[in-house]
Amino acid sequence: xxxxxxxxxxxxxxxxxxxxxxxxxxxxxxxxxxxxLQLLVAIILAAxxxxxxxxxxxxGLFRKYPTVKDYAGVKLQELEEDIRSTGFYRNxxxxxxxxxxxxxDEFNDKVPDNLDDLVKLPGIxxxxxNIILNECFDTPAIGVDTHVLRLSRRLGFSDExxxxxxxxxxxxxIPSEKWHRVTRVLTLxxxxxxxARKPLCGxxxxxxxxxxxxTESGS
Length: 219
Ligand code: SF4
Fold this sequence. Notes:
Blueprint lengths: L6 H5 L1 H11 L12 H10 L5 H14 L3 H6 L2 H8 L5 H18 L8 H4 L7 H11 L9 H9 L8 H11 L5 H14 L18 H7 L2
The chain binds iron/sulfur cluster.
Iron/sulfur cluster binds next to helix 13.
C-alpha cells in the first residue's frame, strides 16, 4: 500500500518526532564500539545479523584486531573464521579487509570523517556512512535503515521508497538540531512498537497523529 504524504502532517513532523524522542530517552545505537574503526567493522557485520550476535562476536574481535593494520594484514580465511557466525562471512570479511587496506593506503590509518570518503570504503553505503558520521564525528546525519524507512512512510514524513530520497525528505521536515536523534529514535520505535508486521498502535504515543493509523482506521 502506498501512503501519500499529507502536507499538514508533514508540517507536524517536528512535533511528532519530539513526542517519540521524549518517549525513548534511552534511544541509542545498539552496536557496541569505542572508536570509528570498531563501529565501521560492527556495521559491516550487522548486515542480515542481529545486534546481539554482532556484539558477542566483536567482543573478542576488537581484542584480537586492535588497529586498522591488523585487519588489513590478516589472512582472509582467518578473518572469515573469526566472523563466521554473523552470516555472509565471506563477503563481510572481504569488505572489512579491503576497507582497512584502503584506510591504510589512502587515509593515513584513520577512518574518514566525511561522507564522500566514507562511501568509498567497501561495505559502507550512504546509510552506514551517515551512522558513522553521526555517532563518531559529531556530524548530525540520518541513516535510513529498514526501520527508519518504514516509519518515515507510516508517519507521513515521506512517500518515497528509495532510502536516499527518504533521507532527503526527513532532512527537509525535521529541524537539523534533531537529526542526530532521528535514526536512534525511529529505529528503536520500529523495533519495539511499530514492527513491520504487527504495529502496536494502541500503545503508540503518536497514534492520533500517524498517517498510516488514520488510513487503517478510516478516519
Ligand atoms: S500509530 Fe501504529 S503505525 Fe503509526 S507509528 Fe504508531 S505504531 Fe506505527
